[in-house]
Request: fold
Amino acid sequence: MKLFKSKLSEEKEDMMADPLREHLKKINKEIENYVNAIKFGIITETLKNQLISAEKKREEIENNLRNLNNNIVQFPDITYQMIRDYLKNLHSTLSYHL
Reply:
């Protein structure tokens, strides 16, 4: 029976990653629109520059998401038995240092 399963870590990751994921969706849609414009024959220097800029933004967001996943501290699962063992040994641990 798990009492605590890395909830803090998961919530922190979601809180930080959700805005990045939303921004990534918008950038992907923007890139899709630029590609569609090019398919229809609208090829300008401005469009090309905007597409390149959007692709750079997308790469930056994807890197931020990867870094976020690598930097989140994962807490161990805490079970009922672990708590019992800790509390059982707590008295002897405290007595030893007194």
Observations:
- The chain is about 80% helix and 5% strand.
